[in-house]
Amino acid sequence: MKAIDFKLAFEVLQDRASFLGKLHEDGYKLSVILAQIALIFAFTFFYGVIMGSYNGALQALSTGLKLWLLIMLTLIICFPSFYIVQLILGSRIKIGQLITILLAGFIMLSVTMLAFAPIVLFFQLSGDNYHFLQLLHVFVFAFSGIFGMKVVLDALTTIFEGQNIYPKSGLLVFKIWVVIFAFVGIQLSWNMRPFIGSKNIPFQIFRTETRGNFYSTVFGSIGNLLGVSQQQTSKNEITESPKVEIDSVQINGDSLNINQDPD
């Protein structure tokens, strides 16, 4: 048996029906899972290099590695809860089959991202607008994610549900899990930033001193492109005490007379 079977792993892109059929029969082997992980690494690394090249060679290499690591860590964090819930619902799908299906979805996600690489590179070389590039990458990730999760949904629906291996309620759980997966991935990506890298900040593998969150950054980029000022004026009003000029002080017994003229 081959240590890594790239042919079968790549079959999800060339012949999805054949891929799903073989997956239903034998669940695929470890060699296919390893090949899937390697393909995801290759596709995401290449896209990450283009993404990070906006801020130089070090950022390009860092982003290429972190983008693959982001996907793998998010999957590792979210997979156990998803698999246990499937068992509770009465799913008879094998863990190897489920891992293979999810990785197949991420192969589709990563190759779709890679397809956008020439467009990203074009805008990066011609426009050089940091905020626009931020939004462009968010769009690419979201659009690619739709294609990737569709592969998983098709596999669960057309193959396993039809054979009474996967319950219908599991499909609803999967859709909810996708939302949870997205939120975990977004938060993890914020913790692992930068991916593009601002040219105004020195290169760092991980950013630690900046504040905010992913959503404020995205809305801030939208506002910047629309010409909306992001500066906030202070709410603290500075008041000046009136100057008092003391003309004279007279002390008559127990009384104190002060003549004051406000400035």
Outline the structure in words.
This protein has a two-stranded antiparallel sheet with strand order 1-2. It has one domain. The protein is 66% helix and 6% strand. Helix 4 runs antiparallel to helix 5 and helix 5 runs antiparallel to helix 9. It is mainly α and 263 residues long. The chain is globular.
Largest β sheet strand count, sense and barrel closure: 2 strands, antiparallel
Described by its quaternary structure, the protein is: single chain
Low-confidence stretches: 229-263
Instruction: Count every helix, treating DSSP H or I runs of 4 or more residues as helices.
Output: 10
Element layout with pairings:
Layout: H1 6-9, H2 11-14, H3 16-26, H4 30-52, H5 57-88, H6 95-115, H7 117-126, H8 130-161, H9 168-191, H10 214-225, E1 244-252, E2 255-262
Antiparallel strand pairs: 1-2
Helix pairs in contact: 4-5, 4-6, 5-9, 6-8, 8-9, 8-10
